[in-house]
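Quick one, tokens below:
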């Protein structure tokens, strides 16, 4: 059993509307799709959705890294994922989003070869996953309107982007809570936008609006600041940009800097290491969330399978495919119904058919 061919397809996917967070706005997601073909006919799909701001990667660097990695994977066994990941890591350090594309495709092959949906092979803890939907930064009034629209669509949890202006951020949360009522879960994400002092002030002011947790209040490199915010915040603190690798997770846990960790496959390097981060966190009593960058239905399916499989992944922010106007997957993938991501009855990731027009021709073929 061996990897016979790896194809690489850069794709540009437009957002429905500009997606704005504290560090800036995006109108498109530049992703790289990977197709791994095995010598026994099974095909696996993977995706990279790099964020230059978070891991320093772009679609261009992802292709450059795949140029180095992919030829070395030919003829290796696709089911020996731990070993395949070791090979990738021995060729080049870092570049987790590039490696995630390969890791996800290998897991798809694992599921298809075993004739099981991937989440069932990895633990099968849940059969569906509650996801939030993200409210991009706008004026407080517009965000409250967007919140009502999301609730009317059936979403039971909202992830509210903040981190721009502390006074306006408090107003955002106040209006959103007022507009949505008491039952909707509200989590916030400052994307490193506050100083520790601002964070502590804002978090204490918005405590009364019943906030589930607050993600990455301060810059990722400011571990001391994060520890201080956690100590003085009445709202649990989740690390996102501060935790990429297993080592980051351990370091933050040891520093008592976090209550929760946001795992993203594009930061961890894929599913294999994402599971390991969840296990490290579990040992410390730290629940995890699975988040996303700008993945299409392929990368999102990978996140949903992992979230369903693992007990300690208690939260999901898996909505980027819903924010994208361009739909790469025609059939299959994980649909959303009343805030729940549900699986199709398919093996592996469950991706059935892609939109060939969006996918285009492969930019690279390694064999
Ligand atoms: Mg975040």
């Amino acid at each position: 059993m061996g990897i016979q061919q790896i194809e690489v397809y850069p794709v540009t996917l437009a957002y429905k509307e500009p997606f704005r967070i504290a560090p800036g706005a995006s109108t498109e997601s530049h992703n790289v799709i990977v197709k791994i073909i095995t010598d026994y006919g099974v095909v696996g799909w993977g995706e990279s959705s790099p964020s230059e701001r978070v891991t320093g990667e772009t679609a261009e660097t992802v292709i450059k890294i795949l140029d180095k990695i992919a030829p070395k994977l030919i003829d290796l066994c696709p089911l020996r994922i731990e070993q395949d990941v070791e090979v990738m890591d021995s060729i080049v350090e870092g570049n987790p989003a590039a490696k995630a594309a390969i890791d996800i495709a290998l897991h798809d092959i694992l599921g298809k070869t075993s004739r099981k949906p991937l989440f069932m092979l990895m633990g099968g803890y849940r059969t569906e996953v509650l996801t939030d939907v993200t409210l991009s930064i706008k004026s407080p009034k517009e965000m409250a309107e967007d919140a009502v629209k999301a609730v009317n669509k059936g979403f039971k949890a909202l992830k509210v982007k903040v981190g721009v202006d502390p006074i306006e951020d408090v107003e955002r949360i106040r209006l959103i809570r007022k507009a949505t009522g008491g039952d909707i879960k509200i989590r916030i994400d400052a994307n490193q936008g506050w100083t520790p002092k601002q964070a502590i002030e804002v978090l204490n002011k918005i405590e009364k609006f019943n906030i589930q947790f607050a993600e990455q209040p301060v810059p990722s490199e400011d571990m001391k600041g994060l520890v201080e915010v956690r100590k003085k915040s009445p709202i649990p603190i989740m690390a996102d940009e501060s935790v990429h690798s297993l080592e980051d997770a351990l370091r933050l846990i040891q520093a008592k800097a976090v209550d929760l960790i946001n795992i993203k496959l594009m930061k961890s390097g894929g599913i294999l290491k994402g599971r390991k981060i969840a296990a490290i966190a579990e040992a410390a009593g730290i629940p995890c969330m699975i988040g996303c960058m700008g993945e299409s239905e392929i990368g999102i399916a990978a996140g949903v399978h992992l979230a369903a499989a693992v007990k300690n992944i208690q939260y999901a922010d898996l909505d980027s495919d819903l924010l994208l106007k361009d739909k790469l997957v025609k059939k299959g993938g994980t649909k959303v119904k009343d805030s729940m991501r549900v699986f199709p009855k398919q093996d592996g990731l469950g991706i059935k058919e892609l939109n060939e027009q969006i996918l285009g021709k492969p930019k690279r073929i390694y064999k």
